[in-house]
Structure formats: structure tokens, C-alpha cells
TetR/AcrR family transcriptional regulator
Amino acid sequence: MTAADWAEAALAALRDEGSLSAIAIEPLAARLGATKGSFYWHFTNRDALIDAALADWEARSTHQLTAALAVHEGEPAARARELLRTMTGLAERDATELALLAEAGQPRVAAVLERVITRRLDALAGWLRATLGLSAEEAGERALRLYCEQLGRAQILRAIPGLLPEAGWDEERRLDAALESLLGPAAVRAPVGGGRQPARS
């Protein structure tokens, strides 16, 4: 086993159980078919493993955001769609972020979440400023509002899906709705980049 194997197993346990308490050495060793000796070869203690798992999640999140920003140059609607897919779609497909948010009372978790979410919000607000000409304040408020809205929806979809009509939608339809919510009354259907394009007056 490598240190990366242990970190991935720790994230999987967190995702499955929804709590940092799921990250325990003996159960993880059983999950991996490894020994406690393998763990102590790579980590001094459980806290070191949690730090490694959080660093791994942050690195992946940063890579995903960078990749989203690198595509669809010259196609604003398509780029916004990829940003939304990275920022909010992941919460529906992968419970890791929701589990981390539930553990945000832990300072080490809160610090990682703040860095990751700040990068995402800055990217989305930057797109809004460049594409719609919004002020920095308005763009930041709109990006934060959408982010909170979508994470709340993701939590409800996982916990009580029957409350939301989106439970029966595929991801593309949910992205359409999120993009319209982001752009407000300026949003119209358009084929550009497979998403929506802000109207121009």
C-alpha cells in the first residue's frame, strides 16, 4: 500500500459514513487488505492520515477547477457550464464535499473547505464580471447565492429526494436550471457551447 492508497481509502470511508470518525486505522486496514504496520510505515498517526486525505481532496478540487477554466475559450456559456459542473455538480455525484461540510466545525476541515470554495467562487465571479459586466460586489454575491443554493439542493436530493422535482432530472437539465438561476432574467436558450448565453441589449 502507498500513502495515496491510504488517503483514498480514508476519503472513501468519509464519503460512505459521512463523518471523520469513519477514518480509523483498523477498519481502513481491513478495507485495504493491509496491516497496521503498512499504515505506520507511511503515517505517524491518524491525524496525519486525515491531513493527507484532506490535502488529496483539495488537490483534486483545484485540478478540476483549473481544467474547467481551461476549456471552451471564446464560448462564455459553455465555460460557465463547466464551472457549474465542477462547483455544484460534483456535490450531487460525490458525497465527499457534503461530508466535509458536515465536519466544518473541525478547524483543519474548515481551512481546506474555505480555500477550495473561495477559489471556485472567485472563478465564477470572475466569469460574471467578464461576461455580464457586473461589479465585483454583485458578481461575488450572485456566485455565492448560487453556490449555497446548489449545495442545499444536493443535500436534499441525497437525503429526501422526493421533495424536489429535480430528483428526476439528469445532470444536464440541472445545469441548465443552475445557469438560468445564475444569469437571472438575462438568460435565454441558445446553442452556443451547448449551454445558455446571456442576452445582449
In short: DSSP finds nine helices and two strands in the chain.
